[in-house]
Inverse folding.
């Protein structure tokens, strides 16, 4: 089941993202670190009612932020659609012990269905240029790579921006 996150879910979400960060570092993917993602980001997502969790039998295995806010870092990108009615995916995570079971696919299907039902033009996101698995995941879902942005607190490497037309 996918539902909106509550304040009580934040600790579990942080455990999941920390476990994901550890796994990525072990694979030489330096995408997440001690600065990101963090409790403040998830609290802000929750307060805006944009944070969702994936749970089975009351246990949270993943999360996703479905936002209408365009980060300033995204402004230089030549998006395929006007910057008027788009959603942005952030902080998609599935606990490493549960990866490979299709849970990330379910979270993305949920976000894309949400966007379609609410008449958004597109779904936008970024993923780390060194994370080949994520890049393949989004390309297989039909996302088009459009350009790069940088988050210096996260990495010296760029993040690839993607957009899916709806």
């Amino acid at each position: 089941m996918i539902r909106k996150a509550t304040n009580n879910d934040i600790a579990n979400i942080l455990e999941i993202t920390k476990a994901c960060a550890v796994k990525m570092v072990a694979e030489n993917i330096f995408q997440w670190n001690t600065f990101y993602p963090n409790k403040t980001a998830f609290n802000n997502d929750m307060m805006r009612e944009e944070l969702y969790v994936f749970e089975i039998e009351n246990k949270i295995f993943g999360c996703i932020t479905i936002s209408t806010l365009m980060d300033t870092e995204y402004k230089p990108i030549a998006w395929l659609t006007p910057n008027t009615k788009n959603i942005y995916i952030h902080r998609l995570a599935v606990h490493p012990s549960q990866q490979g079971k299709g849970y990330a696919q379910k979270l993305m299907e949920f976000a894309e269905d949400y966007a379609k039902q609410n008449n958004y033009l597109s779904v936008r996101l970024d993923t780390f240029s060194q994370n080949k698995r994520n890049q393949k995941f989004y390309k297989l879902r039909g996302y088009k790579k459009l350009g790069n942005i940088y988050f210096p607190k996260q990495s010296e490497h760029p993040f690839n921006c993607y957009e899916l037309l709806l």
About this structure: The two ends are 24 Å apart (CA to CA). The chain has a mean pLDDT of 95. Residues 10-26 form the longest helix (17 residues). The chain has four helices and seven strands.
